[in-house]
Amino acid sequence: xxxxxxxxxxxxxxxxxxxxxxxxxxxxxxxxxxxxxxxxxxxxxxxxxxxxxxxxxxxxxxxxxxxxxxxxxxxxxxxxxxxxxxxxxxxxxxxxxxxxxxxxxxxxxxxxxxxxxxxxxxxxxxxxxxxxxxxxxxxxxxxxxxxxxxxxxxxxxxxxxxxxxxxxxxxxxxxxxxxxxxxxxxxxxxxxxxxxxxxxxxxxx
Length: 205
Hints:
Elements lengths: L1 H19 L43 H13 L8 H6 L11 E15 L3 E16 L5 E19 L2 E6 L5 E3 H6 L1 H4 L3 H12 L4
Parallel strand pairs: 1-5
Antiparallel strand pairs: 1-2, 2-3, 3-4
């Protein structure tokens, strides 16, 4: 009796083991392949119609220093004192620019790259100013003397259409030579012209 019960127990164990062992035709376990996440590229803020930037979608400056030099050249000539397509070509958000009511009279301007990465750059602007020109109560332009050295920094951004100026926004650094040459256009008082000529003639401020 004991031997029979022992043999019966062994048979049950073997049978259970066979049932738990996968056969040759058993279907292999399924492995889920990872799905690649699809992320839509965000529209840059300056190209978003809701921002109203009127960004110029045309290829322009491929080097940040080239852009900064062009900006200072145009600014020195007084181009940004009036509405101009040049503003559209250099600014990231030209429609958000303020309307200038005064400008700095400058000389001896210099540029220096402070930082440059793939999509951002900083270029230092340095020079000397005699002060700023603004209108008086008779609608003529006068110089408010503020002789000093000035330093500012261009913050530039690279877009798919080239580099653009993010800030500063229209500081208006106009060359003293431009102001003197266009004295009638600027409606300068005679004393203002003399002050600017003296500023240009001396070294330093």
